[in-house]
Amino acid sequence: MSTTDPRVDAYIEKSAPFAQPILRHLRALVHEACPEVEETIKWGFPHFMYKGMLCAMAAFKQHCALHFWRGGRILDPKDNRSDEAMGQFGRIASLADLPPKRVISGYLKKAMQLNEAGAPTPRIKRKSSGDKKELTIPDYFTASLKKNKAAKTTFEGFSYSHKKEYVEWITEAKTEETRQRRLQTTLEWLAEGKARNWKYEKC
């Protein structure tokens, strides 16, 4: 039997009007696909648990996000837009931005199977420390940080490695469009006090 959390109800109610039907839809899909799912709040937004972390959803000012804990082993590459925003489905501004119900349900089933099989928890690949070089931060990134006090404060308080993760993610974008998307996402995450790879950090 599934377990709901009143904090998730409160989270949905406090979300923007456009986000509420999206969050309710995703929540219903999770419970339908996984009757034994348990809800909780981690890192400030709803997570769904089934023999470990299954997936999570979140609402922001202009979009929502859906993130599968083992997305890299679950999603069809054509559905994976993780470079656009948190989660693997990019910026979800309406139900039309989501794959069909059967597709998401299929991903949920795969996620359940991996958890049941005890698949290894995703881990961040750590680079050897070596000699730290001075981090070169692009002017456009610095200018954007100056316009966002919360993001600037978080970034300045980060360790060298955390700063480098964001700078490399932005600068390694292959197109200007992707670079701008990543920059916007970076500012949002920094304003929320999040590291680049916060999705994989243990609570």
Distance between the termini: 25 Å
Adjacency order of strands in the biggest sheet: 1-2-3-4
Q: What is the molecular shape?
A: globular
How are helices and strands ordered from N to C? Answer: HHEEEEHHHHH
Mean pLDDT over the residues: 84
Q: Which architecture of the largest domain would the CATH scheme give at its second level? A: Alpha-Beta Complex
Total strands: 4
Q: Structural class given helices, strands, pairing?
A: alpha+beta
- Estimate percent helicity: 40-55%
Instruction: State the CATH topology of the largest domain.
Output: Aspartate Aminotransferase, domain 1
Percent of sequence in beta strands? 5-15%
**Radius of gyration, in angstroms, nearest whole number:** 18 Å
Please, how many helices? 7
- Domains, number: 2
Secondary structure elements and pairings:
Layout: H1 6-14, H2 19-33, E1 38-42, E2 45-49, E3 53-59, E4 64-68, H3 101-116, H4 139-146, H5 149-157, H6 160-171, H7 176-191
Antiparallel strand pairs: 1-2, 2-3, 3-4
Helix pairs in contact: 2-3, 5-7, 6-7
